[in-house]
Amino acid sequence: MAMLSTPLAQKLGEYCTGTAAESLADTSMLQAARMRRRQLSRMTKAYDRPTAKTRLPDTNYAISRKVDGEFTCLFFKDGEVITLNPGGTIRAGAPFHKEAADTLSNAGIKEAMFGGELHVRHQNKQRERVHDVVRVARAPESQDAVDSLCFAVFNVYNIDGQDLSMHYDQAIEKAQSLFGAGSRVFPVETQVGDRSKALELFDTWVGEEGAEGIVLRSDNAGVFKVKPRHSLDLAVIGYSEGVDDRAGMLHSMLIGVVRDEQHAHIVGRVGGGYSDEQRTELLKQLNTMNVESDYAEVNSDRVAYRMIKPGLVAEISCLDIISTTSHGSAIDKMVVEWDEQNNSWKGVRRLPLCSILSPQFVRLRDDKTFSGDDAGMEQLADIVAIPTTEHGKLDALNLPQSTILERSVAIKTLKGATMVRKLIVWQTNKHEASRDYPAFVLHLTDYSPNRKDPLNHEICVSNSETQIRELFADWKKQYYKRGWKEQ
Length: 487
Known about the structure:
CATH topology of the largest domain: D-amino Acid Aminotransferase, Chain A, domain 1
CATH superfamily of the largest domain: DNA ligase/mRNA capping enzyme
């Protein structure tokens, strides 16, 4: 393939996958896919139905049924097709790739880029789910599974140099003219209408037929997503108090899912949905549950959350749940561990999870407890595909031990007092498992009993062993002079 520098890995039959880093000949294609994903995220406003009824501009829209799939870009060049997502995953050789290549070749197009949703089509008319895409596209178990992969086109980013992405009527018209008769590649189902029409279609497509939502596009008003709100039961991990005129009232709760009886995975914060009376009463209740913690987060007012003893579960609603950034990277959140003996929390490490959008407090669930059955991960995984890499497993919490590479101590006596400087370089052995850690650390301990603050520290980090060893040598020259003697 002209778009690839090295062949992709064969998965099943002719279907194959690979990564942009290893196989993409033109890296600007990945940059373009990521830019389009960021552009779409920035431009799209998300509403639930009640909010849409009052806040949607009253204008004409291209109204589309939202497909629950993976944002993907389809590239066509010299008669060949690949798909590429913002995370850098390349796919090719599935029947839908061949269908797209034939369609575009027959239309006389030389080069093109389309935005769409890669999804799995079920034979029993069951709604598509993004979890199915992750499962099938990564490791299909049969040719039928590969055949079920489909691509729903929602925008035209390039056709032989023409960009229609900001002209939605033209873009969907072009997609319909090219793919309207397609079997596995087709335009998203779209109708034209005003706000009232959009709400009617929401009631039909979402309320009656179970679609994920609707998307409205307008050259004048922009892009809007209307979805039903999700209900979640999440453990309350901590809370913060309001400031100034909101002092004495709850600001927000820190919430998470329960991974096991000792570990909670922080999802985010919920600061809306409370009445003023609830904010006052909840703060009084939470104030009685304070415990110690070596892990801290702050709210939007830069006030630290106070952690509480596990036990409370809150029902919240949210408009959407996302598990990847606009670049396709996992969204890592902190896992905290409850120490019953010391009555305290401690931070363990970040693992892939998700972010919740527009969370609103509904109520405390007195019938729920701090357990995986009542406030566990499954409720999130039922809505969005949570990354399940090896680093995402709970047993990955036990990180490798560090290795000391260099160690040096020097002393100096002044006015009868002994001063000590110690340099240590260590390799963390954790940087591949967690982005919270550098590969190498250089640390200086500087002790002088004659100073107002006797003990000082200085630290430097690097991902290069050569660089950190050079810094170690430079620091020895800098700090071991004028009477300092290395031991």
